[in-house]
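Researcher: Structure for this, please.
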Amino acid sequence: MSRERIVITGIGTVSSFGDGVDIFWDSLVAGKSGISNITGFDVSELNCKVAAECKDFDATKYMDPKQARRSDRYTHFAMAAAKLAMQDAKLDHSSVSPERLGVLIGSGVGGMDTIEQQSRAFHQSGARRVSPFMIPNLISNMAGGVVAIELGAKGVNFGIVSACATGTHAIGEALLHLQLGREDVILAGGSEAAVTGLSFAGFCAMKAMATNYNDDPTHASRPFDLNRCGFVMGEGAGVVVLERLEHALARGAKIYCEISGYGATCDAYHITSPDIEGRGLSLALERVMQDAGVKPEDVDYINAHGTSTQYNDKFETLAIKKVFGEHAKKLMVSSTKSMTGHLLGAAGAIEAAVCAKTLETGIVAPTINYETPDPDCDLDYVPNVARKADVKVAISTNLGFGGHNGALLFKKYEA
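Model: Predicted structure, token format:
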């Protein structure tokens, strides 16, 4: 049975580089790091003091100031990315029916800033000082809800939460709904604003974060490098406009690429560690290619989860070699987290944007800070410098605490 062809027609990103896909992509191609010393809160008691903060972000550019005051920062990012994606797609109410417009924007953590602020108010001043907006602001589905209200989108809308695989799963679920013909357009992606004191304290307690580069933040995230020592958190959002090809052509939309496959699995192994044999991710990779109808040798590029942690990078490399065999050595594999930091629930969304831009431009963004090869990580990680390449098929992978795995497959658009 033939399925609807689905394409990406708009991209919206909010990152430490600034707002919008152009500055985002130009920074990645230039090999620029968006990681710096934290300025948003006191880091004196933390052993990781660096992050990719959105330091100059202004929510009132995208939301009414009153609404912005009543919303969490992760919702601000989601609204900005959604509106930027709509603008990039040249999509408005005249070009899509509200009943056929969906929003699937997830978050791995949700309103962490709200949780911290309201907890302080409760403990310092009592229950009467807790805001009536606390619950709506902190729940992880609210970003998608607020975006849908603002845009009048009455199609599919629910919150997806799968830790660092959230953005990938949101886009994958959107793909399924569109292939079934239930919607014409879906805004899909992830948003995260977990660069806060409490969040950092928790991740530092887990010994998951980079601690050896506090005086050299741009070198802190170093996926696949022998001297990696943990991940660096980022914040922001990514939203892509997914659209039925027929609908996109009818309105004369610009097409970045086709999205053709989705794979989702669980390690069923450990709450934080990936499967040490890479079985869950291997299955997700096999499924995404089967779903898209491509063979391993057809794949040119993988935007890896590549967190810069000891376990992830080793076991992700293992999974790629298991699935692709000899072709693994011919693959280009890069981790743009080396520049953006790890945006947790938004990671898969901005990395889907990377794949779309790779297919559009024929440029593969590098893995920066790759200086000392690790014998366990022996693939072509596009080290340090962007590369021109004829990429026709790209895959993005993401893993989340709880054993969640997600993979998306993108193809160069051909009429």
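Researcher: Any notable elements?
Model: Residues 262-411 form a domain with the Peroxisomal Thiolase; Chain A, domain 1 fold (CATH 3.40.47.10). The mean pLDDT is 97.
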